[in-house]
Amino acid sequence: MKSGQEYADKIAGQLQFFIDESASLQEEQIRWKPSDQEWSIMELLCHVEEFPLYFTGELENVLAHHAEKWGRNMQHQGRLDAVAAADDRQVEDVINGIHNTKKQQLVGYKT
Question: In terms of pTM, does the model score above 0.70?
Answer without folding.
Answer: yes
